[in-house]
Design brief:
single chain; alpha/beta; Immunoglobulin-like; 3 domains; 4-stranded mixed β-sheet; 64% helix; elongated; disordered N terminus
């Protein structure tokens, strides 16, 4: 592990560069929340103001709105609808005999609004006419089928592990953009969206939150704190395997809530392997309970699982909101999982050795020591401050991504690691996966597949919030076992958003919490259900202890049913 001290003469440039980056990041974040006022010319010219929505009431942006006067074919005003679906059209002064507004957008039926006598009278007086919301009806195009088939293909490639997750997502984004650019001249209905529109679907709050936490965890990892905690768990258990697995599960769950489940397993699995081998038991009997506890424990906080990061950003659910609303259900699920694990692995735990040889004990102690106490003191203090800001920052509308980046930059300034090494710590592959996945999900949202799914679920559940909650939780648990829970969650967010607006009583975001519970706990059912599962399997296989799909399914599926049932009970009580 590289030393956390910069090479000679490089400290000051690094500090200057990072400081400038910090100031720029804060400025951009501030301006995004508090845009500078834009001057507007005051005139008595008439105008039209309106808003475009789809059949689910969601805003339609980037629609072309064109105005024609007095039956002419030459437009007098044109504009694209904004992100909230609104448009404002300034008209020329003078007598207006008739007025027509044509509205067109790919994947929607074109529509026309014609001014009546009352609106024309107001316009002649120089007034601005505000229209009622205009609903654009969806239409199925060849682009719809291309986007849908591409999305399904990406999910299959991920589920069957035919391609790396990131490669599958990038391939999907490439196909969608390629068809849009190459196919549009041949047939306009092949168009899905252009690159600028694709970027609009990328949630950069998620990207920067993950990036910041990767840097923070990368610095903390070098101190040896996680290996030290695992060794202390062994000491507390005094060699009793049943007590050791309980401590490890609790430790992993808490660490996953404070960091994230993938990182936690990367740090915990190596030392757990050594402890298991020292006790003479199969490492899988400790590691599988750990990874399942990790997936469950991460549900408690915004940063605990990738699925929560997606949900929190989309639904504006903060760190403390997850903590308050989901922690009791997480504790219930962990208790049930612990009982299940102790029953399933009771024979292995009974056969474990109580006493270790001095050599093995010394090796565990050496591997489990804190290697950089001074760095840990500095980085640990900043990390605790970050957790405080995650909670308190919600009161001043400080988004989690800004907190993560501020914490990461501050930690870099204080600890002064080698920036080159820190860039290697960042998992750029995962970030690219998120970006490409957002584009693929955006494509099926653009063409209307998400709307069709949302309407179908709404017809199934009607206005029954409890039924909707059960469908979201258990569908999430089932589907997350078939495909990775990250793409499933990303695809379901607009659906849950629609249901939350249309089902009475769902404005408390209960369905989003249900999606969190179903997707994260459902990830425990199969090896490909969660990223943490695949990371753990990779490490154990390199150590000679392969975790097959069927072995994981045999242990994980019953555990999922039990824990999701506990989570469902809590959600019904809470909401």
């Amino acid at each position: 592990m590289p030393e956390l001290s910069p090479p000679d003469g490089r400290g000051q440039p690094i500090i200057l560069l990072v400081s400038m980056g910090l100031l720029l990041f804060v400025l951009v974040g501030y301006l995004s929340q508090h845009p500078l006022p834009v001057s507007a010319a005051v005139s008595d010219s008439p105008g039209i103001v309106g808003r475009l929505v789809d059949p689910q009431g969601e805003a339609v942006r980037n629609a072309e709105v064109v105005v024609y006067l007095d039956g002419g074919e030459q437009s007098v005003a044109a504009e694209e609808s904004q992100a909230d679906g609104s448009f404002t059209l300034d008209l020329p002064s003078g007598p207006i005999e008739s007025l027509r507004v044509d509205i067109a957008r790919p994947h929607f039926q074109s529509t026309t609004w014609t001014a009546g006598p009352d609106e024309l009278a107001l316009l002649r007086q120089g007034a601005t006419v505000r229209l009622a919301d205009i609903t654009l009806e969806r239409r199925i195009t060849p682009g719809f089928w291309i986007a849908t088939l591409t999305f399904v293909s990406v999910l299959l490639l991920i589920a069957l592990e035919r391609l790396h997750n990131t490669m599958a997502a990038l391939l999907g984004a490439f196909i969608i953009l390629g068809v849009s650019f190459v196919g549009r001249p041949l047939n306009p209905d092949l168009f899905i969206f252009d690159f600028e529109q694709a970027l609009q679907y990328v949630d950069f709050d998620v990207i920067f939150l993950v990036l910041g936490m990767m840097i923070v965890v990368g610095i903390l990892e070098t101190t040896g704190i996680f290996q030290w905690m695992a060794y202390q768990a062994y000491r507390l258990s005094r060699g009793r395997a049943w007590l050791l697995v309980i401590i490890l599960m609790l430790l992993t769950a808490v660490a996953s809530a404070m960091l994230d489940n993938v990182t936690t397993m990367l740090l915990m699995v190596p030392i757990t392997l050594e402890i298991a081998l020292a006790l003479g038991i199969n490492p899988r009997s400790l590691i599988l309970p750990e990874v399942m506890a990790s997936n469950i424990g991460g549900i408690s906080t915004l940063i605990g699982t990738p699925t929560n990061i997606l949900i929190g950003s989309y639904a504006d659910i903060g760190f403390s909101d997850f903590l308050i609303n989901l922690t009791p259900g997480v504790l219930m699920a962990l208790a049930a999982l612990t009982v299940y694990v102790l029953v399933v692995y009771r024979h292995e735990y009974r056969a474990a050795a109580l006493e270790l040889s001095p050599a093995l004990l010394e090796r565990l102690k050496e591997d489990g020591r804190i290697t950089r106490p001074k760095t840990l003191g500095k980085a640990g203090a900043i990390f605790i401050l970050m957790l405080v800001v995650f909670v308190a920052g919600e009161q001043i509308h400080l988004v989690a991504a800004v907190t993560a980046m501020l914490g990461a930059v501050f930690m870099l300034l204080v600890v002064e690691p080698d920036i080159d090494e820190m860039l290697k710590v960042v998992d750029w592959t995962t970030l690219m996966f998120f970006i490409a996945l957002f584009m693929v999900i955006g494509a099926i949202q653009e063409v209307g597949l998400i709307s069709i799914i949302a309407v179908g679920i709404k017809r199934l559940v009607g206005d029954n919030l409890n039924l909707a909650l059960l469908v979201i939780v258990w569908a999430g648990a089932f589907m997350s076992g078939l495909i990775d829970n990250i793409p499933f969650t990303a695809a379901m967010l607009p659906v849950v958003g629609f249901l939350s607006k249309t089902i009475p009583g769902a404005s408390n975001k209960a369905l989003f919490y249900g999606l969190s519970v179903g997707a994260a706990m459902g990830g425990n059912s199969t090896l490909i259900g969660a990223s943490a599962n695949m990371v753990t399997a990779g490490i154990t296989e390199r150590a000679g202890y392969r975790i097959s799909y069927m072995r994981f399914l045999k242990i994980g599926l019953p555990a999922t049913i039990i824990t999701v049932a506990m989570g469902t009970i809590w959600l019904l009580i809470r909401f």
